[in-house]
Write a structure and sequence with these properties.
Elements (H helix, E strand, L loop, with lengths): L8 H5 L8 E5 L5 H4 L8 E5 L6 H9 L5 H10 E4 L13 E7 L7 H13 L1 E12 L12 E5 L2 E4 L6 E3 L3 H11 L1 E2 L5 E2 L3 E7 L7
Parallel strand pairs: 1-2, 1-4, 2-3, 4-5
Antiparallel strand pairs: 5-11, 6-7, 7-8, 9-11, 10-11
This protein binds S-adenosylmethionine.
Length: 208
């Protein structure tokens, strides 16, 4: 069965998407978000992840349906999956129409988060969107002392997997910062007990 608790980003943003050229999912993981765009009008759909998953397996898991070769082939035709490290990827300038970065940036220090967000933003076409979701300091799982060591106020290290470090934002402060630097589509701003979601829109330039 599809995961009902997982928002369908395509449905959420369908009224706000005005360009359907290139969609990039940064750290696409198990591909749930990309799959939702299978029947969208995006001309190019790119997934970047340092770990490339088996799409057919994922498709079955995500949609609760069985593997089907035809579906697999059709599916792959619509997507380019790259085993790229997004920190080294050339996103271009004024190029992409939607970038999704979901549950990825909390693995990076705050300064790096801001740099990456700026790079994503600069790569958007005018009217393009940047969908971001990241864990925050009130996330009980990421701060659970049974599993995580505290390294400082907002930095937690997984006891079992020491390379897994969470740099958790303070959501109100982070939102304030985002609002001061970017134009947010406020109807998509959401803070849950686990994470913060916001959508940045690249505004059209006005000529004075
Ligand atoms: C917690 S998963 C989230 C996956 C997916 N976006 C989602 O919301 O279900 C984080 C993903 O980011 C990927 N990732 C982290 N750092 C990355 C990097 N520098 N370049 C590419 N992928 C990265 C990981 O491999 C992992 O698949």
């Amino acid at each position: 069965m599809p995961d009902a608790s997982r928002p369908n980003i395509m449905h959420q943003l369908q009224n706000d998407i005005i360009k359907t050229d290139t969609l990039i999912d940064v750290g696409y993981g198990d591909m749930h978000d990309l799959i939702d765009f299978e029947h969208s009008s995006f001309k190019t759909i790119i997934g970047l992840d340092t770990q490339v998953f088996q799409p057919f397996r994922v498709y079955r898991n995500a949609k609760g349906i069985n593997y089907d070769t035809q579906l697999h082939d059709q599916f792959l035709e619509r997507f380019t999956l790259s085993e790229d490290d997004f920190t080294e990827y050339d996103f271009g300038i004024n190029k992409n129409s939607l970038i999704i970065c979901r549950h990825v940036l909390h693995f990076y220090e705050d300064r790096a988060k801001l740099n990456y967000l700026q790079r994503f933003y600069l790569s958007l076409q005018e009217g393009g969107l940047l969908y971001v979701r990241l864990n925050h300091i009130f996330n009980k799982d990421n701060t659970d002392p049974d599993y995580m060591n505290i390294r400082n106020d907002r930095v937690f290290q997984n006891k079992a997997v020491p390379d897994d470090i969470r740099y958790l934002i303070e959501p109100d402060d982070f939102l304030k910062l985002m609002r001061s630097d970017y134009y947010l589509l406020e109807s998509h701003t959401e803070s849950t007990e686990y994470d913060l979601t916001f959508v940045i829109k690249k505004l059209q330039r006005t000529i004075n």
